[in-house]
Fold this sequence. Notes:
Chain A has seven helices and four strands. Chain A is of the alpha+beta class.
Amino acid sequence: MTFALTPERESHLAEILSRYPNRMAATIPVLHLCQEQNGWVSEEIMEWVAHRLGISAAHVKGVATFYTLFNKEPVGRHQVWVCRTLSCALNGADALLHHCEKRLGVHVGGTTKDGSVTLRTAECLAACGQAPMMQVDRDYHENLTLADVDTILDRLTRS
Amino acid sequence: MLRQTKYLSSRYNEPDGWSLSAYERDGGYKQAKRVLGGMTRDALIEDMKAANIRGRGGAGFAMGVKWSFMPWPPKPEKPHYLVINADEGEPGTFKDRTIMEKNPHSVVEGCIIGCYGIGAHTAYIYVRDELHLSKERLWGAINEAKAKGYLGKNPFGSDYAVEVFVHTGAGAYICGEETALLNSLEGKRGEPRLKPPFPAQAGAFGMPSTVNNLETIAIVPTALEMGGDAFSKLSELHNLKDGGSRLFGVSGHVNTPGVFEACVGLTLRELIYDLGGGVKGGKLLAVIPGGSSCPILRADDLVSAPNEKSPLFPWNGKSVLDVPLGVDTFRALGTMLGTCCAIVLSDQACPVLAMHNLMRFYRHESCGQCTPCREGSAWIFRIMDRIVAGQASIEELDRLSEIADNIMGNTICAFGEGTAMPALGFLKKFRREFEQYILTRGKSSPNRLTLPGHFAGAAE
Ligand SMILES: Cc1cc2nc3c(=O)[nH]c(=O)nc-3n(C[C@H](O)[C@H](O)[C@H](O)COP(=O)(O)O)c2cc1C
Ligand code: SF4
Ligand code: FES
């Protein structure tokens, strides 16, 4: 197997293991660690995680496929999630999403040709009072106007 | 009655209100120190029972009573765990996030006290993965507390060891359900477990565990400082054993959406008009009181409670908007208090589209273990899709009710009811609107959710 974590992430892994009474409990945090490094969770990574935690690859695969935030295929350099649940929908989420699709030239789920942005929808992200909103990578952008969205997307496609 | 409070939110607007120094300036960690410094477990539990803190995660179970369910004394071979639910995924709910970002030390202090109360030495705070700033602030608070000797082997010089960890999910609403959350904490798929056994018998890692919502645990230091009884009496519903103050959220079509802290007893009218700044773009059509799983109330609904024994009797004949928001009062209204975060719909919004939106959510989030939930939620959404596309007949409204009825009581977890009850609520409260919508293929309705001119000037 060729996958390996960076030394910093390796020591993070050791710290993660110390939090739990058994190794299986580290499955989700360690998958996050791998995805952070690799951008997505490949077969090879699932097997690596299983091996490192001493659990079955089938278990790790079952977990990775259950949770929507583990990417099962490569994604763009930046991730955009537009919340479309009710409080956001009452405040323009649909129009905002269509605007993103047009601006990026992709449908929901797609990645721009230059590989810069993957556009997705999200269910309620606990920012309902600041609707409409979207998450970009690790950051929340709230109370959005279409002009705000343009500024954000321009920045992402340039970087 | 509207009485705003500042127990959790006093430093919400301070730039470093989340830091240890700011928390201690306001008297933080004194209660944890007092508890570990020699308070008996019995005295702590009694005080917490007297505080009448009803769980802030949705079901409204009495927190002190839940703590008292833990087996006692703890057996060395069966360590106890405190698990804090900060999955905050219920549509419309955005209150726990404010605590984690702006007052994380109240959570850490609550965890220390909670651990002592239930005989645990480890607390896990389960935060949904998307909330990166929340996780960062919680870890920051944990590390600050640890550096000061408030956590670890000898917190405050006592010999009662306490460790607190943050654990994250990876995007699945169902992980907010407490047994799904426990599976997820154990590194498994987030599928709910059959109950019994309840978490107090076999919870995290098969050990006795207590699952508390994040706001529930964060208010513990305040309740202890005031004394349970005094804390409970802040509430207008003290006599219904629904005590204290809590966070209320309001979103949707209001002028000033947000999270507000107030004594229990606040009404929807106060939440929408006094705190939420009134309805935006039209008149009030309806409100979902506490997260999307709570059946919707119409603005013109009146309380019918002629029986003196009903908790609603004092409001008989009055508008539902004037009933104090409480666990038992809202249950008696045929809906639920839930998370106390209301979603407001103006009469410019279409209730059919609102239900369509929510049913898409439930179809997407069903974990798929139970046939009635998996198939039922998909079927409901398909019919809603056909209604919105102008392809459904009136009879299909009855089919919707039948499907929802068949989910009720036939599933492993309460997600099933959480899907069926709001569906039935919409169908009952908006039957006429649904019929007209179907007959006119949507022309009877504004047929939109967003207010006209929301993104004025931009091409929509
Ligand atoms: C489908 C479903 C989702 C839930 N989501 C949450 C949640 O996000 N946060 C939460 O605190 N409780 C949630 N709950 C309630 C929990 O199961 C549990 O009752 C709660 O965490 C107990 O804490 P409390 O007594 O302090 O309210 C959910 C329940 C169900 C059925
Ligand atoms: S009711 Fe739905 S969400 Fe709950 S266990 Fe069954 S299928 Fe899963
Ligand atoms: S509905 Fe969009 S954040 Fe809650």
